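Write out the 3D structure for:
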Amino acid sequence: MHFGGGFESGVVLAVHDDGRRVQVRGEGGEVREFVLSPATARFVSADSAHGPRLELLGEL
């Protein structure tokens, strides 16, 4: 998850709507939901357009 300059690792818990909505658990245990933006093709917070973004990476 990207928070305006910082990063936090997370684990994808669930994938919905044919891959357009995902639930992710962050390092602190908080579960967040992200949706795929049709305008930018990026995962953005389901709660707020100004919230964190999700970047999918392989295991580090």
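The chain is about 0% helix and 45% strand.
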